[in-house]
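Hi there, hope your week has been kind to you so far. Would you mind checking whether the tokens look sensible for this chain? I owe you a coffee for this, so here goes:
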Amino acid sequence: MKSICTVSTIYLLFIIFFFETLNAQAARRKVEGFEFYFLDDWNKQKNPDKLLETFAEKFLAEIRSEAERLEKRIPGDTQIFVSENSEVFRKYSGQPGTTAAFYSPESNKFFFQNPESLAKRGILDTVIKHEICHFLAPESKSESSFWMQESYCESLYPTNPKPISVDLKFPWSWEKFDEECMKEIHTKNGSKKKILYQKLYLWGSWLLKTKGEARFRAFLETPNPEIQNIYSQFVKSRY
């Protein structure tokens, strides 16, 4: 009797999981090696196929343009998940519901909030470009590369309000700045994260303007002691 109950329970859980997964991926498109999915727990979206088609066209146009600009081949076998709402986005991406989008290099997956909502906020195009920037950025195993890459993409395609204050304080040494960024990039404190992104934008914009994009990408790929002197130049330029 106990084994029958166990089997029944497992079967019930399987059915629940199967239908939840099926329902969560109600719409799907595969174009040029990219798989697009629409995530919706209860299929509230009236026409998810049309929304997904429109988003896929925009995404592919942007990634072709960026890859051509960088003269870089577009990697394939990538999945893009588009969410109906912030709760669905949070559930499947593991990111806060306030985040507009997220690219995971470990799983090679993109997660986006509802494109219609992002478009109403006037940030859809920038958000797509920003995440594609991460996707096409040089690979590196350096601990600093994560926040440096965020600085790079934020300086090109800012997804946060640009700094309006010149009072942001930067540490004098690169080691202190690196340590601060590695710590704060993972914080869940909204105000701290806002300040960090303002600093990343200022540092990235200055580095991009003074040293060029090719050199910036080289720093992302391979740590270079030269960055310490360059950072000192940046700090001195602010004071």
